[in-house]
Amino acid sequence: MKLRAIVLALALAACGQASEQAKAPENQAPDPFNLNIEVGRYGVMLDQIENLTEETPNAAEAEVTDPKDLARRLRETVWAYNIERSALCGRGLYTAVTCGPSYQPVWIAEAPDSAPSLEELQTRSNALGEEVMRFWNAVCEEARTAETDEEARMYVCAIE
């Protein structure tokens, strides 16, 4: 049974390689339409992974005060911040705050099991907060300006 599974996996891998080679012959420039489809597929794959693992039984739940978890969530927030800015820049929105270089603090690439001190985590949070607040303020201020109803304007970007 294992041998059949291995043979099947190798055959599928070979098909995938042949498919990849058929997509972009060496003497031909990449097709931007096909590249767009390929990149879109990666996004769909990531969405499927998220959906499949969202309610996984027996998944470990980190303690919200665990320094490793706090460090991970800070890194994830940096990634989300950069993704949102990139998406808005790509749409030509809020270019003064979205089209600059991505935020890449030194600690963004630390090991997943890194457990910095609470003091270091607070310093990181403060720095990230400054970045996010600048971005948030620019977008919210424009949204408030665009809102014609005075009462509704009070609730634009209300956090509490």
Question: How many DSSP E strands?
Answer: 0
Biggest β-sheet strands, sense, barrel: none
Give the termini separation. 59 Å
Strand residue percentage: under 5%
Helical/strand content category: mainly alpha
Description:
This protein starts with a helix and ends in a 6-residue tail after the last helix. Helix 3 packs parallel to helix 5. It is built from six helices and no strands. The chain folds into two domains: 52 residues; 88 residues. It has 160 residues and is an all-alpha fold.
Please render the helix and strand layout as text.
Elements: H1 2-23, H2 32-53, H3 67-90, H4 95-98, H5 118-146, H6 150-154
Helix pairs in contact: 3-5
Considering the chains and any ligands shown, give keywords for the structure:
160 residues, mainly alpha, 2 domains, extended, disordered N terminus
Give a quick summary of the entry:
The chain is mainly α and 160 residues long.
